[in-house]
Design a protein that fits this description.
Elements lengths: L2 E9 L18 H4 L1 E2 L2 E2 L2 H10 L5 E5 L11 H10 L3 E6 L11 H7 L11 H18 L6 E4 L6 H9 L4 E2 L21 E3 L2 E3 L4 E7 L2 E6 L7 H14 L3 E6 L5 E3 L7 E3 L1 H16 L4 E3 L2 H6 L16 H24 L6
Helix pairs in contact: 2-8, 5-6
Amino acid sequence: MRTRVCLTIDTEFSIAGAFQDAACVPVAEPMVWCDVDGRSEGLGFLLQQFAEHNIPATFFVEALHRAYFKHDPMAPIARRIHDSGHEVQLHVHPCWSVFDHDDWAARVRAQPRQDDFFGRSEDDSLRLIKQGIAAFGDWDVPRPRVFRSGSLQHDDVLYRALARAAIPYSSNVGLAIFDSGDPDYQMYSGRHVRHGVAEFPVLTFCDWRLGSRRHLKSLTIAGTSFAEMRTLLDQAQRAGVALVVILTHPFEYVQSRDLGRQRARRHGVNQHRLASLCQYLDQNRDRFEPSGMAAAADHAGPDTTANNLQLESGLLHSVCRMAVQVSYDNYGALALAGNTGVRH
């Protein structure tokens, strides 16, 4: 059996500190294209790697930003992704909806947690989801069939809202990123049906144990070395895990010191991780099938005995990864401070 691997890219703009500081303004296209010296090191880099290795991916495109960006700068981005042969699915950050109100600054001061799906009413969640679906019609891309919540926030109520919105699939759970505390949503891998919606969580694994203590990580490009990714994919395939979900963002492929991404350099470590992963999947198609998420979900079948396995990567991999990340982050900070054009 081949394991389907879904590379998922949360594609979104940034509030960029506007809720905390009136001098700050939200940032749109620079968060997605991530240009450095006239070259896109974010979305452009991703599309180039996927094309080179013939990998279909899933871009979860945030759709509520239109409350602030009235000219809808995400529209050409969504069409570019779709025209490149990838799935465009729905991503929603509720915080953008506060800009529907003229007194948004006062509302944020009174209730700072504007971005929560956890604890939100079912009707309000449904309202936000429907707003996002409407954007897809305006963008002239297919109606979304998979949903991902902002910051992977979720609760049981959200799945009832998704069912009412006729969204059949979701990928809202990544336990090392957000844990609702609900034992019914302790999902590490596999396929799980809640209120008629099939949830495919971002793979969450144990990267080290000390005695009875374990540390969990969700499978992201920015937080996982290629050695760890290869180990986890091989484990999943041997164990019969039908589908593995990996998370990333375009802005993770640059380093920057400011919220507006005006001073940036390419992130060599993260770019190498993604390129290595794409090459590995391309060279091992006898065991792995790169796939868009809706396409994979359509063929996922019923739950299996391999459902909800918690995989492990090992302490040595973790130590090596942390050493590389700390040293590269420090080097990048020095490079940005000294020369904005450095591209190492």
